[in-house]
Amino acid sequence: MLPGLALGAARWLGYLPPDCEGIEIAAEAGFALERVGLRSARSVFAEALLKRPLRAATALHALARRDERRWRDSLRGACAVTPLRRYPAWKVPRLRPSASAETASPLRIRLVLFASRARADAVARSLASLRGQTHRDWSLRILWIDGDAPEKPPGSDPRVTSAAWTPHATGPGLCGDADLFGVMRAGDVLAPDALILLVRVVTDERPDMVYADEEVGWRRIVPRLKPDWSPDFALAAGYVGAPALLARAFLARMPDEPAETPEDFALALDLAACGAARVAHLPRILCRREPIAVAYDRAERLDGHLRAIGSPARVITRDGVLDLDWPVPEPAPLVSLIVPSRNRLSLIARVTQDVLMGTDYPAIELVIVDNGSTEPAVLALYDELRADPRVRIENHPQPFNFSAMVNAGVRRAGGDILVLLNNDVAVLRPDWLRVLVGQAVRPEVGAVGAKLLYGDGRLQHAGVVVGLGGEAGHILRRRPADTSGHLDRLRVAHEVSGVTAACLAVTREKYEAVGGFDEAAFAVDFNDIDFCLRLGARGWKTVWTPHAVLSHLESVSRGRPTGTARERFEREAAAFTERWRAVIRHDPFYHPALSLTTFGEELE
Known about the structure:
Elements: H1 41-51, H2 53-64, H3 68-79, H4 87-91, E1 109-115, H5 120-131, E2 138-144, E3 160-164, H6 171-175, E4 180-185, E5 189-190, H7 194-205, E6 209-216, E7 222-224, H8 231-237, E8 244-247, H9 248-253, H10 262-273, E9 279-289, H11 298-308, E10 314-318, E11 321-325, E12 335-341, H12 345-357, E13 364-370, H13 376-385, E14 391-395, H14 402-412, E15 417-421, E16 425-427, H15 432-440, E17 445-454, E18 459-461, E19 464-466, E20 472-474, E21 494-496, E22 503-507, H16 508-513, H17 527-537, E23 541-552, H18 563-579, H19 581-585
Parallel strand pairs: 1-2, 1-4, 2-3, 6-9, 12-13, 12-15, 13-14, 17-23
Antiparallel strand pairs: 4-8, 5-9, 6-7, 6-8, 10-11, 15-22, 16-23, 17-18, 17-22, 19-20, 21-23
Helix pairs in contact: 1-2, 1-3, 2-3, 10-11
């Protein structure tokens, strides 16, 4: 996969096998190759040894084992991937002067900038960036928040007007007869082609809102690489930022609520935009913002917004982070927890104890799908569990097929909510199931996944990125449990492309609507991600939440499959890539400038 053009140019390093005769590149219109070079494996290894010695050692070990894929991925991870903290150095060779000439467009842009006299220098920087835009049909209204507007200097740009801020301003009123409306902060500096690129997206897609990426800071610059439209994330965290433009027609449909302060106005606009039906994201860094702390009570505003739109969600604060809590219906629906298992007393005893005794949800049914256990201690445990009316044991003596076992468990289950659960997980918080059910019963949600930790406390599952590692992979695995992720997204519930079946909640209706797990194509691997993507194709989104926390005990020790297991894995991987090629090319919730080789949100 080639990286996305976050700045104007991209670089890619890839492995060519000895029998390579040519390279074919699939790219969009306007793609141009500036330079192609061939490097020896020895020179790349030397660079890896210099930059990341541990990755170089991993590559050397893979080479000795004749593991070509691990060899090339380890070298790429050392030489072609840059940590986010080194963004300024990564940025320099990828910058290109704007080649965007102004094109005829009937779309007019009205921007509002809130200013104070103490920030006159920042206002000047923003004005200079606007005057350098290749798109000329814009106007700016500067609203001064600390008194009357200064006298307009002679010969100044007629597109720029100013006035004192007055309470009760509304979006439609400030937008006037312009086609697109946006809010700037003093100090925002737009790239020269920012407006014309955004206008082109609006012309092509006609969205209610369009937004792009930004960088923040002056001395220490960091990028904010945003996902495609993620309304749950936007509602809780307000990630959209700048630059962003709203269509006048959408503004006209917004509640006409006057704002007392500029901060109130900007926040009300941000929250209202979360209800947009059509939103476009341009994955380009088109604005630099100053890291200014904005003082407003988002929790109070968000709570009022949720009440106004009739949402059942409540605003909560966990560990100092604002998020949404989705209630469980009354009475609580029956949840069937489906646990495929075979032998391993220590595992099945732990998970059954945690589900039946360590979970505070009131309506539980445990369905164990046993794949031919022979250990006397496990069979004795089953005899004890059968005395509990909440437990069902389904014998499934066929050859191991995880998808078939899950489907068999669903057929035996009686609950309206299904929770797929591995036999090697342990419950860490008693409210985990309530959190999952609250998300799963939302009409727009398909699958829901939990935060899973390895037995040593490191992060194992924080959602799946399609395309990561070639097919699909867990983002930020083996990081500390409190890792916040880029844009702090691991601190709130948000949309992802897939979650693992080690802990996955879904309503029975939606499970059956897509035909359950595909036991023919994905007997062992990729079945859960395929399931989530099929839900997505039907219009149901997948959500990962950090508030349901479990431990995935055995997963840390699993190695790569070998022999016939490896052949089976490769068949399933090929079937997955053939079926979901478009999503592999672009996971909507993972920025195209981030690497698909490593698992740590690093720059390609």
